[in-house]
Amino acid sequence: MNLGKMLAGTAVILLSAACGLVIVHHSITGEWPATPADLAFWHDDAVREGDETRRSWTFPMRDSATIVVDATDADIQISPTDSAAATVEIWLAGMTTDPDNYASSVRMADPGMLRVNAKATESWQNWQEGHARIIVHVPRATAITVTSIRGNTTIGEMKGRTIVQAYGGGIRLMAGEGPIDLQSNGGSVAVERHIGAGRIVAKKGTVMTNMMQGALTISATGDIGVRRHFGRLTATSDGGAITADLLSADSTCTLTTHLGDISLRIPQDAQTTVDAFTSEGTIINQLSVGEHQGERVAGSWVQLLGGGGFPMILRSYRGTITVGEYFE
């Protein structure tokens, strides 16, 4: 913020009883809020940096609050902050810098709900020139809800509930905790080092996870890859292959694909029941125990390992099923 500009304007300082914080709103750099809940710590409007224009907001925010982002034609990045405040930056390039082409607003609906809206107007969509980026820092336990059209969403190291619906873009979730519900129509989904149960849906895309812990349900039209998973797993693909490496066989695993192959690897000492079936393919036992080791079996194969346990249910209608051992 330019100091001369700040001193030239009028600042209004209020004590928020709801947040227990002093809130500042500047009369030159931002519009007057409709209610006290809309007041920001600070708001910079249309600051030029290189080829981009930046708009930014800072709001008081408690750790268990919620942020709702609804955006079109923008990449979204959300990461944690250790402060009791939320910061939102909207970076615009090309034709999006014109407010007639790209409209954005950020407001605190109440002390526990921050809303971010950023959408291209019809005139900008006709030109398709320019790009928008939304960068958000919120307290780590903030619950997240994102709706994105034609943009990628990246969320890292958060510990609250995460819900993302993406149309025409991908989703990436990293090093987080908490329940998840990720749905992409036209993009891929990737999750790495996450603790928490949830659901992943990728229509017209693939799903890749690594080092997840918790009950997980996956549905995709493309390939599904699950590496180093701990917990119950249900994965279904309409036309892709499924690969799954399990760190434990202490939960049920169900893998189903209509047109692709299935590859499952489990610990060498697993106590489980393998129940595999393929209509037109074969089943390969690459385990060091059990019947038909190294052989191809047509139709179905049921094998108790270590006395049996939670089932590994594998179904491929036109593909090959391979069961092997996982080594770290």
How do the SSEs run, as a string of H and E? HEEEEEEEEEHEEEEEEEEEEEEEEEEEEE
First-residue to last-residue Cα separation: 51 Å
Strand content: over 45%
Portion in helices: under 10%
Quick tags:
328 residues, mainly beta, 26-stranded mixed beta sheet
Descriptive report:
This protein is mainly beta. The protein has two domains: 1-141, no CATH class; 152-328, no CATH class. Helices cover 4% and strands 59% of the residues. It has helices spanning 3-8, 122-127, and strands at residues 11-16, 21-26, 42-49, 52-60, 66-72, 74-81, 85-93, 102-110, 113-120, 131-139, 143-149, 153-156, 162-167, 171-174, 180-185, 189-195, 198-203, 207-213, 216-220, 224-229, 233-237, 242-246, 253-257, 262-266, 272-285, 296-305, 310-316, 321-325. The chain has a 26-stranded mixed β-sheet that branches. Strands 1-2 form a two-stranded antiparallel sheet. Residues 1-39 have low confidence and may be disordered.
